[in-house]
Amino acid sequence: MLQNLIAGFGDALQPLNLLLTIAGTALGIIIGALPGLSSPMAIVVLLPVTYGMEPLPALLLMIGIYVGTKLGGSYSAILLRTPGTPAGACTALDGYPLAQQGKAGHALGYATVGSTFGGLIGWAVAVSCVPLIATVALNAGPADITLIGTAGLVMVCAFVRGSLVKGFLGVLFGILIGTVGIDPEDGVMRYTFGSLELSSGIPFAAALVGIFGIAVVLSDIILIGDRSHIVDKVMRLAMPKARDIAKRWQAIAIGAAYGVGVGAVPGVGADGSTWLSYATVRNRSKTPENFGKGEPDGILAPESSNNATTGGTMIPLLTLGIPGDGSTAVMLGALLLHGVTPGVTMMRDNGDIVWGILAGLLVANVAMFFLGWKAIRYFIFVLQQDRSWLFPFVLVLAAIGAFATSNTVFPIWVALVFGVIGFLLEQRGFPVVTIVLGIILGPVIEINLRLAISLSNGDYGTFVATWPRIVLIGIVVSLIALEIRQSIKRSRSISNASACSAHSS
Question: pLDDT per residue over 193-207, tens digit each?
Answer without folding.
Answer: 878 888 878 887 788
